[in-house]
């Protein structure tokens, strides 16, 4: 990572919005640190929030791979998320009305296979047609999946939801007993406000480890895919599908790959959620999840992976941060306020920065083809990278 | 037709028909494009030129008749399958690729890049990088040949219409077509760039690319193309050298609106 070798140069090469995002992020981290140290924010709850942020980042990654890369309008983010959540829950939970009790890895595989099949099922009839048809079909799909989960009690327990879900590392050597094996710790950084790190904390840190693994792997895959010739074809399709067809690209196949990839990532978010929350219910398939994912991607900058990451974190901050607004003596509930706030943020972004806060770079060429390995974000390796760096002007 | 003559035909349009509702857009159109020629396709507005292009390149499915590229029947194939057989087309209005530089937009051109396979990005990154380097070099070379290398780092959406046409032509060449279909290459292009386009088309033709082009600019097409196919009301009115076409009374009638 050359940014670590030459931090000054890396900083100087940041575009204005990048610098701005970095500044806000640093301030935000310091704020959280202060809250943690003074005991205002429980460490276990904090880790839960990190898990949620990772989960929303995954959802945004998934939608970005569809909408941001290829321009596919998918309104069934919640459905694929739900398939992931229910797929793993039904395979692993002790309270599962079907199979149940399997290793979480089995749940993971089953969830992904079901999401894969569903993506094909919806993609085959719609991806040959104009873009709007996928949008309409996916809107319907989201509702169909939600109603099936709600009504097919023999399969899903209906409105009671699925309980008795194990942690993801259940049955693994070392990791499954890790939280119990860790000693309870008592830290007192700020006198008078001790911080207790107990089993629940260690459990939560395992979850964070898991989501970092999922999100990290996804980010790596998407980053590589995005600046590859593969990603270039997707961007061409997004701008002008007919052009891609005329140049000999099988656009149906590319759209399908993009759609399936994104759907699998959304299901992955669902799998993680299952083992984070240890309970899933039909409410988890509400369209609000789809809405949040869209907001995150548009806010971050459609087509940009780091934008999706940023957007996901912003969404969780707003969603969870508004809980604390109750303490600030507001006479109304924070829930409607939360949507209002998101609305204001979206309007502001669309007004002042319609391309999103961290839009994708303008020129994405397989890195080692250009300069033998240097990542194009590092601004110290030539004109081309500097040109591609921000794309905001 | 003898085998030798058939071998020389790179694109054969035979009895092609297409109608939209009650409107017959292509009415039993038949013509050949011989290898190595610059064939012009002209006709008054509404004669069905663009429809024929869409039928040949696979964007429309014909109601009847056949299209052959290099002796292979491509009727009813998807555009990408037609392109795989060596026939590439451009569009009347230049297509803009948002968020890309001209250089990047050029790189969409080469066909069958190993990096277009998602799996190979991870299983053989070396092969992907190698082909990407080659394509990048080709793109730079062609941009230089077209004398538009100074545009390489410009956003592909921020260049003039004429420059866009040049970029489109340059990019299409990266797909290494045997036949290139150009839909109004100089429509809306200033005379200097039009001249440039004309000399580029000539140069590429000398190097072996066959062209079929629709053009309304009579001076341009008469100077560049030979033979010329005249289309009127969806059917081939006549074909021949620019000289014979220009002096054909039926062509004059068709353009003056008194035809049929």
Automatic annotation (TrEMBL), chain A:
Subcellular location per the Swiss-Prot or TrEMBL entry: Cell membrane
CDD domains: TM_PBP1_LivM_like
UniProt-recorded name of the protein: Inner-membrane translocator
Region called Disordered, residue ranges: 369-393
InterPro entries reported for this sequence: ABC_transp_permease, LivM-like
GO molecular function: branched-chain amino acid transmembrane transporter activity
Lineage: Archaea, Methanobacteriati, Methanobacteriota, Stenosarchaea group, Halobacteria
Transmembrane segments: 20-39, 45-65, 72-93, 105-124, 131-149, 200-222, 259-279, 291-316
Lineage: superkingdom: Archaea
UniProtKB/TrEMBL annotation, chain B:
GO BP terms: amino acid transport
Any Pfam family the entry gives: BCA_ABC_TP_C
Keyword Transport: yes
GO cellular component, one term: plasma membrane
PROSITE patterns registered for this protein in UniProt: ABC_TRANSPORTER_1 (PS00211), ABC_TRANSPORTER_2 (PS50893)
Segments traversing the membrane: none
The ABC transporter domain, residue ranges: 11-258
GO terms assigned for molecular function: ATP binding; ATP hydrolysis activity
Family matches, as InterPro entries: AAA+_ATPase, ABC_AA/LPS_Transport, ABC_transporter-like_ATP-bd, ABC_transporter-like_CS, BCA_ABC_TP_C, P-loop_NTPase
Keyword Transport tagged: yes
Keywords for the protein's UniProt record, in alphabetical order: Amino-acid transport, ATP-binding, Nucleotide-binding, Transport
Protein role: Probable component of a branched-chain amino-acid transport system.
UniProt record similarity statement: Belongs to the ABC transporter superfamily.
Name assigned to this protein: Probable branched-chain amino acid transport ATP-binding protein LivG
């Amino acid at each position: 990572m050359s940014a670590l070798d030459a931090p000054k140069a890396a900083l100087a090469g940041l575009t204005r919005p990048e610098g701005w995002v970095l500044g806000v992020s640093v301030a935000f981290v310091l704020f959280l640190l202060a809250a943690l140290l003074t005991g205002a924010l429980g460490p276990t709850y904090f880790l839960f929030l990190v898990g949620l942020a990772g989960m929303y980042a995954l959802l945004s990654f998934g939608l970005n791979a569809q909408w941001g890369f290829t321009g596919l309008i998918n309104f069934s983010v919640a459905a694929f998320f739900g398939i992931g959540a229910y797929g793993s829950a039904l395979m692993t939970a002790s309270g599962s009305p079907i199979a149940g009790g399997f290793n979480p890895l089995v749940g993971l595989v089953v969830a992904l296979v079901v999401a894969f099949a569903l993506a094909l099922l919806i993609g085959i009839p719609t991806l040959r047609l104009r873009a709007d048809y996928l949008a309409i079909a996916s809107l319907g799909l989201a509702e169909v999946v939600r109603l099936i989960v709600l009504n097919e009690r023999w399969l899903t327990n209906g409105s009671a939801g699925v309980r008795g879900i194990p942690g993801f590392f259940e049955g693994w050597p070392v990791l499954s007993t890790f939280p119990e094996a860790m000693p309870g710790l008592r830290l007192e950084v700020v006198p008078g406000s001790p911080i207790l790190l107990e089993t629940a904390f260690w459990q939560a840190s395992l979850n964070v480890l898991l989501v970092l693994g999922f999100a990290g792997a996804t980010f790596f895959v998407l980053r590589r895919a995005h600046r590859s010739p593969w990603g270039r074809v997707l961007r061409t399709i997004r701008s002008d599908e007919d052009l891609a067809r005329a140049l000999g690209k099988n656009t149906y196949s590319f759209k399908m790959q993009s759609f399936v990839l994104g759907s699998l990532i959304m299901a992955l978010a669902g799998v993680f959620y299952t083992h984070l929350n240890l309970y899933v219910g039909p409410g988890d398939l509400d369209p609000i999840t789809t809405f949040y994912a869209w907001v995150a991607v548009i806010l971050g900058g459609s087509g940009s992976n780091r934008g999706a990451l940023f957007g996901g974190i912003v969404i969780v901050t707003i969603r969870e941060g508004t809980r604390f607004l109750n303490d600030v003596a507001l006479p109304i509930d924070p829930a409607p306020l939360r949507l209002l706030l998101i609305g204001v943020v979206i309007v502001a972004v669309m007004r002042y920065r319609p391309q999103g806060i961290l839009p994708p770079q303008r020129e994405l060429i397989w890195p080692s083809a250009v300069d033998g390995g240097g990542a194009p974000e590092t601004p110290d390796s030539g004109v081309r990278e500097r040109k591609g760096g921000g794309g905001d002007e | 037709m003898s085998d030798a003559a058939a071998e020389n035909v790179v694109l054969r349009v035979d009895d092609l028909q297409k109608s939209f509702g009650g409107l017959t857009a292509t009415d039993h159109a038949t013509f050949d494009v011989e290898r190595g020629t610059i064939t012009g396709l002209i006709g008054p507005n509404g004669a069905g030129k663009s429809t024929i292009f869409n039928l040949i390149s696979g964007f429309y499915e014909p109601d009847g008749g056949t299209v052959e590229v290099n002796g292979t029947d491509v009727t009813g194939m998807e555009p990408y399958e037609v392109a795989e057989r060596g026939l590439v087309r451009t569009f009347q209005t230049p297509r803009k690729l948002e968020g890309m530089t001209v250089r990047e937009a050029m790189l969409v051109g080469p066909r069958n890049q190993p990096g277009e396979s998602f799996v190979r990005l991870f299983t053989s990154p070396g092969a992907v990088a190698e082909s990407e380097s080659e394509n990048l070099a080709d793109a730079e070379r062609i941009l230089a040949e077209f004398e538009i290398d100074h545009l390489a780092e410009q956003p592909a959406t921020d260049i003039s219409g004429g420059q866009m046409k040049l970029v489109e032509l340059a990019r299409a060449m990266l797909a290494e077509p045997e036949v290139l279909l150009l839909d109004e290459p100089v429509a809306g292009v200033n005379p200097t760039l039009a001249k440039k386009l004309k000399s580029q088309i000539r140069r590429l033709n000398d190097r072996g690319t066959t062209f079929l082009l629709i053009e309304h600019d009579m001076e341009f097409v008469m100077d560049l193309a030979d033979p010329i196919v005249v289309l009127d009301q969806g059917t081939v009115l006549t074909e021949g050298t620019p000289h014979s076409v220009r002096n054909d009374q039926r062509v004059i009638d068709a353009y003056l609106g008194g035809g049929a």
